[in-house]
Design brief:
This protein is α+β, with helices and mostly antiparallel strands. It has 19 helices and 11 strands. Helix 13 packs across helix 14 (317-333).
């Protein structure tokens, strides 16, 4: 099997800046869709339900009509009922994998441009109707000439220009949002900049294929990663806009009834999911950046299958080190004074208070989390307390924390569904992992220092 040249992340082409008239046209299109939403709501005023309920029911369709950038935000809402409320999340779940498909003629044209032939010649069989259609791409079933069943992910034709215009609008919006304290605290401009970088990478499927191979190798290096699976990539049928991979069947991670019917342990699934975020982000600096329910399945062996590696989060070595120390201080040592010092080192705190006072405030927030099961936690209350702490210390979160926090909004829902009685922060297996993890990381750090010292002596 031939393997095409792989592309490094440094070679990713940024989305070109669109001319002002194009941006203005996109603003006009956005305004038109909002107006259409208002018209749909007006036609239903005489029906049952409150005005708020009628508006909520119409917004998902507006997001779908506006295209991939807005669908991405809709997917966050769909998978984060703890942050946005169950009624709103439920309305948006159709955006996870039911966006209208692209025109078949355009799809065939893309195959000719990317792989040099029609899909019916490249594959033994190819289903023209996609089985899933999302914001950036749609996915088709196919069979290789050698007999293996595969799925083929195809980028939506013509989305680059639309996405580029949307991102310019979002960047202007982020500047306005940062005029408010909450916008500055959440690093709105940094988050949008990272969102733009991620979308640029997501539009090159070769990078996604590389991320799949690299990320799963990291996970399988630890015994705690044995319940994690990623489909195999077929590189000879993969290009910038087409990705061919192994077909894996399973149950969506939020289909709790079916998961329990099959006898799988929800707590073990949740542990594997948490491990993937901590191991990838805190040890290797690479974590899956789009953990909505459409991207997570449980296969016939009870393993979590991760799909859609178009968006990957990255954390630089210094921030990783500080985050590991922070997790170790909070979960293993229960040393709130040390945790406070680490937060200050991150540069996140604008107002520094006496160490004893800061430690007491952090302990007051963190301790109840270790004593409460997931099903009994009130995430609205946690959010309130966290907001009060942020106000008191004028916290501006680093962009990496905001992005990894978005993944925990997703994970929080699955935890409450699959393991509501599990006390996450008191679980000995998890705290043992963090304790051993810090020992291993410290050893690795010391080894690296020694290696650099030896190299310096040799050069001298």
């Amino acid at each position: 099997m031939s393997t095409p040249r792989k592309t490094s992340h440094r070679e990713v082409a940024r989305l070109d800046r669109v001319p002002l008239p194009v941006e203005a046209a996109r603003i006009g299109a956005t305004g038109w869709q909002v107006t259409r939403t208002g018209a749909r709501v007006l036609t239903k005023l005489t029906g049952h339900g409150s005005l708020q309920q009628k508006v909520v029911k119409q917004i998902p369709q507006t997001f779908a009509d506006l295209g991939p950038t807005y669908v991405k935000f809709g997917q966050i809402i769909a998978s984060s009922p703890g942050a946005f409320g169950e009624p709103l999340s439920r309305e948006f779940r159709g955006l996870l994998d039911r966006v209208p498909p692209a025109d078949t003629r355009e799809v065939h044209k893309m195959f000719r441009e990317e792989l040099g032939d029609e899909p019916q010649n490249l594959f033994k069989s190819f289903d023209e109707q996609p089985f899933a259609s999302a914001s950036i791409a749609q996915v088709h079933y196919a069979t290789l000439h050698s007999g293996e069943e595969v799925v083929v992910k195809i980028q939506r034709p013509g989305i680059r220009r639309r996405v580029a215009a949307d991102l310019q609008i979002l960047k202007r919006g982020a500047q306005l949002v940062e005029l408010a304290k909450l916008g500055r605290r959440l690093s709105a401009q940094d988050v949008v900049a990272d969102f733009a970088d991620n979308l640029a990478e997501e539009l090159d499927f070769r990078l996604e294929a590389q991320s799949m191979d690299a990320w799963v190798a990291h996970m399988h290096a630890s015994p705690m990663g044995e319940n994690i699976r990623v489909p195999q990539v077929y590189w000879d049928l993969t290009s910038e806009r087409v990705l061919t991979m192994e077909r894996v069947t399973g149950v969506r991670i939020d289909d709790v009834a079916e998961i329990r019917k099959r006898g799988f342990d929800g707590t073990e699934l949740v542990k594997a999911l948490l491990f993937s975020v901590f191991e990838g982000g805190l040890r290797h600096g690479l974590f899956h950046g789009d953990l909505h329910a459409g991207n997570l399945y449980v296969d016939d062996d009870g393993k979590i299958v991760f799909f859609d590696f178009g968006i990957m989060g990255r954390i630089d070595p210094r921030t990783r080190w500080l985050l590991r120390e922070l997790v170790h201080a909070l979960l293993v040592k229960k040393d709130h004074a040390a945790a406070g010092k680490i937060v200050v080192l991150m540069g996140a705190v604008g107002t520094v208070k006496p160490e004893a006072e800061a430690a007491k405030d952090l302990e007051k927030f963190a301790t109840p989390l270790t004593l409460t099961s997931l099903g009994d936690l009130s995430y609205a209350e946690i959010g309130k307390q966290l907001s009060a702490l942020a106000d008191a210390y004028d916290v501006k979160l680093p962009r990496e924390l905001v992005l990894i926090g978005k993944q925990f909004l997703y994970v929080e829902r699955y935890m409450k569904l699959l393991a509501p009685k599990w006390q996450m922060m008191s679980d000995p297996a998890l705290t043992g992992y963090f304790a051993n993890f810090m020992v291993e990381v410290t050893r690795e750090h010391n080894d690296q220092v020694e290696e650099r010292t030896d190299n310096d002596q040799v050069e001298a």
